[in-house]
Design a protein that fits this description.
This protein is mostly helical. Helices cover about 70% and strands about 0% of the residues. It has four helices and no strands. α2 runs antiparallel to α3. The model has no long low-confidence stretch (mean pLDDT about 75).
């Protein structure tokens, strides 16, 4: 059986349960990176604090929220291209209208 473009041997959908969590994570992250699936990474960022709380690490889950928002803020602050910032302007307005007041 030939390996796929990411170097992994193909797995039938029903066989995913047989893979280790590390293998599942590696495959999912690699696939998302190859396909520029930002939604997947955003979903992980949103779920990590809850997963940490479920695993009994509540103090870490609060820190994760702060850390994730800090990473995003840094990324946005580093993007100093006025054209990019103007393109994001409607997103900021929509979000604030939806969540503030």
């Amino acid at each position: 059986m030939a390996a796929s473009e990411d170097g992994y041997l193909p797995v039938m959908e029903d066989d995913f349960e047989q893979l280790s969590t590390d293998e599942l994570r590696d495959r999912a992250v690699e696939h998302a990176k190859r396909h520029w699936d930002v939604r997947f990474f955003w979903r992980l960022l949103k779920l990590i604090p809850a997963a940490e709380a479920v695993s009994g690490r509540t103090e870490v889950s609060e820190a994760s929220v702060a850390q994730a928002s800090g990473f995003l803020y840094e990324a946005l602050a580093e993007e100093s291209d006025p054209g990019v910032q103007e393109a994001l302007r409607p997103v900021y307005i929509d979000y604030l209208r939806e969540h503030v007041n």
